Amino acid sequence: MNNEIKACVFDVYGTLFDVHSVKKKADELYDGRGEEISRIWRQKQLEYSFLRQIMGNYETFLTVTRNALSYTLRSLHLENSPEKEELLINEYKKLECYPETEEVLRSLSDKKLAVFSNGSHDMLDPLIEQSGLAPLFDAIISVDHAKQFKPSPASYTLVLKELGVERENVLFMSSNGWDISGARNFGFQTAWINRGGMPTEELGVKPHSIYEDLKGILEWR
Amino acid sequence: MNNEIKACVFDVYGTLFDVHSVKKKADELYDGRGEEISRIWRQKQLEYSFLRQIMGNYETFLTVTRNALSYTLRSLHLENSPEKEELLINEYKKLECYPETEEVLRSLSDKKLAVFSNGSHDMLDPLIEQSGLAPLFDAIISVDHAKQFKPSPASYTLVLKELGVERENVLFMSSNGWDISGARNFGFQTAWINRGGMPTEELGVKPHSIYEDLKGILEWR
């Protein structure tokens, strides 16, 4: 089966890149409230992308991320200033990748390699550029091309168009259980990078493989 | 504008009926963990309905609710037995309505009255029946007729078909901010029953009115 994999496609936030520094920055700006802020912010960021997808009311992930931050700060009765918002949003553009990322990508150089994210290019491109990983990828794919968020089938279709492969020849990696459910539902091969040891989602589809970090996927070579 | 309202349509869980007793039952069954269980359960119940809507992978709200409970108990390392699951699910069929519900409904008897819920009839019908409110409603409308969860436009369309009214003549009530966003996005008049004093959602649309409980909507008569 492994010979059939022609493309390895990676989610970005939490999968290749550690979002921890966003929490750290929030902690600095809001006097130790970083944990709380980043938890609610992430939850609302996902919820708003899901709800806009369902309502047919698409805005870029950058807008959704700003909206989610605004809700979060209001819900915690914390001040939201344009300056602080910029500092927090900018953190997303300079995240560190997980330590194994580069080695794993280099070991897969005989496959097509791409990132595929709900993030819009105004967030993704600066991040990939500063990481030094850009030359390793054949494509930086954003759902913004289709204005359809993951986990909609229409979003995953972008990967096929962009890489010129069939869905069963794609191995897709994400740290988000719901993204893996959507990708398997669409017809990708799937590897859930379950860094947090979370329970499997109950959405009627299971990941093909589950690993603690990206190194696990090397058995698909 | 008030003369234009021909139908008053109510969400069910948290809007007409108090879901507190579910928490109480979880507290009994799981030794004081009811707060935690009901919080995660509710969050996953919503998330799974949203994700299935996006993935095009519909199952009834009863199934989604059971799946969400299963995830919740696994995430908390608590035992999930068929007996306990039945006891918890059954609580949804015998919730108490909020104290003002009946009086408000009776005051609106010159309008068409309906409930409209993500709940499937196997959950909704026993609940409305035991409440004694059934004779006050012209229709019990479940998204299950269209197999499209709220807040999709396709789901709200069911209300128009069922009641024979135009969207601008519908006043829609929900305690869920996202449901109100979806309903306004669709074209209903909207009253957010914000019992918990939550912040307004950041989804690009605002409720027409916000009230602490159902009595506020009487000004739309």
TrEMBL record, chains A, B:
- On whether Repeat is a keyword of this UniProt record, the answer is no
Provide an example Pfam family for this protein: Hydrolase
The coiled-coil segments of this chain are none
Transmembrane region(s): none
Asked if the keyword Cell membrane belongs to this entry, the reply reads no
The molecular function terms of the Gene Ontology recorded here are: hydrolase activity, acting on acid halide bonds, in C-halide compounds
Q: What are the protein's UniProt keywords?
A: Hydrolase
Q: Which family is this sequence assigned to?
A: Belongs to the HAD-like hydrolase superfamily. S-2-haloalkanoic acid dehalogenase family.
Q: Which NCBIfam families match?
A: HAD-SF-IA-v1 (TIGR01549), HAD-SF-IA-v2 (TIGR01493), HAD-SF-IA-v3 (TIGR01509), HAD_type_II (TIGR01428)
This one is known as: Haloacid dehalogenase
